[in-house]
Amino acid sequence: MNSHYPKNGRVILHVDMNSFYASVEMAYDPTLRGKPLAIAGNPQERRGIIVTCSYEARGFGVKTTMPLWEAKKLCPDLVIMTPNFDRYRAASKGIFDILRQYTELVEPVSIDEGYLDITDSFEKGTPLQIASDIQAQIKGQLDLPCSIGVAPNKFLAKTASDMKKPMGITVLRKRDIPNRLWPLPVIEMHGIGQKTAEKLNSIGIHTCSDLAHANDIQLKSLLGINGLRLKERANGIDRRNVDPESIYDYKSVGNSTTLPKDTTNQHELLMVVETLCAKVSSRLQQKDVLGTTIQLMIRDKSRKTITRSKKVANPIYRKEDLFHHAKDLFLKHWDGDPVRLLGVTAQDVVEKSEATEQLDLFSYKKFAEKEPLYNVLSKLHDKFGKDSISQGIKAKNKKKSYDQKQDTSFNKDFLRE
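^ thats the sequence. predicted structure below, dont judge the formating
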């Protein structure tokens, strides 16, 4: 079986669940099969946005992120259900339990997709056999469809899994790139959004082939180091390893909300910002991290979005500190137009154990008053370990558990305890 595996390279699978939330609901209630089904926010409020929908609904033109009222116009018989995250997390746990039967090198990316490095799994079959077995097992045990990409790296595996849905298995080798990847518009390449595509188009880069052969200096000038990284991807180069622990890497922690109605009432808007800061603070404490940059997002009734951020002197996590900076950003940058959505994010987060307070003229005295406490803590940590005692609220250990209820499933929080 070794002959089906490269001597020096890797074999990576990307498993992507098809219309995950809708598929879970259909598995739970078979009477929904074959019907146009949409999972959306509160149908009674304007914030009803399509989270995902069945392939039957997509046949009517219904799409993810489409407002509910627009989806209903396209498909009057659309069945609408609100998200059941407990149900989705349970299904996700079942999926990843299956994937780990084939290799320990499983990297969850979100609640419904993940990478596997099966380079050393040759005893379980050829790469195609393993992909087929995984697909059949998930379908047989959980009644959920998935598509799988098979490739020598993560980027190509992700690209391959998108090529055939639902229930597809696609192999994408580096030698296939000129025929299968290069003809595509850059907007269809994984990692390129609308704004980046528009920037690339502005300098004559319209296809993945154009990007693969673009000038390095011009790309770096336009997009920074990310421009060179995208060029590598367009040439099928991706050096990232499948990392099972990356699920616990947090670069930012944020919350946003769509308002029930557009509003210009400053007091009401600041109350929303304060509520968002409380949620962000709670999640920062659960993760045992602190934010070093605070970002505020404001979206008006015409969907124009502005984001403003500020670097803070010392890493923070308390609601009061977050609100102080978020409020300052809001008062400086809100133009008075009716607001539809607000968001607060703590960015560039650091582990509490690694955060170093930057002493300044105003904080050094307060720090000095606590120095005896810090010395005692340091001695206890040296004697009994750094987790023996801590200040404030200590987050729970990073266990691979899916059981705790959470606010959202659009990030890696779905695996937190």
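Residues 92 and 111 are 6 Å apart (CA to CA).
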